[in-house]
Specification:
139 residues; alpha+beta; Cytidine Deaminase, domain 2; 5 strands
Length: 139
């Protein structure tokens, strides 16, 4: 993976800005995410809920799918921001999608919108050890 320098707080600020565009009329839990890709581009996404809950998409997957649609497939880091007091760690589905486009060293930053500087960080391998998927060389 190419070394890309970045500021976690800038990514978190971008995710916080995106969060305001979330569509969450059922849960009221608006989430924003910004993914930094190995080519240096960033892509933001929000959660979009649906009356048929299975059709809902999380902010993390929305951001990653935007990146893939733009031709970028290697995530270096992702920042996730939500309101409230609970940190918005990625769900299992998002962790699996992150493992498809990331590496063990992909960094995940989570924060609440009112306390970005109190963010927490983990690597993808910490969140989903022994992930299932194609080896990096086969992608």
């Amino acid at each position: 993976m190419k070394l890309v320098k970045f500021d976690p707080l800038s990514l978190l600020e971008s995710a916080r800005s995106a969060r305001s565009k979330a569509y969450a009329p059922y849960s009221g839990y608006q989430v924003g995410a910004t993914a930094l890709m190995s080519d240096g581009r960033t892509f933001s996404g929000v959660n979009v809920e649906n009356a048929s809950y299975g059709l809902t998409i999380c902010a993390e997957r929305a951001a990653l799918f935007m990146a893939v649609a733009a031709g970028s497939r290697e995530v270096v880091a992702i920042a996730i921001v939500a309101a409230g007091t609970c940190l918005p760690w990625p769900c299992g589905a998002c962790r699996q999608v992150l493992s498809e486009f990331g590496s063990d060293h992909t960094r995940i930053f989570v924060a609440t919108e009112d306390a970005l500087d109190g963010y927490r960080e983990a690597t993808l391998s910490e969140l989903i050890p022994h992930a299932f998927g194609l080896p990096p060389a086969a992608r």
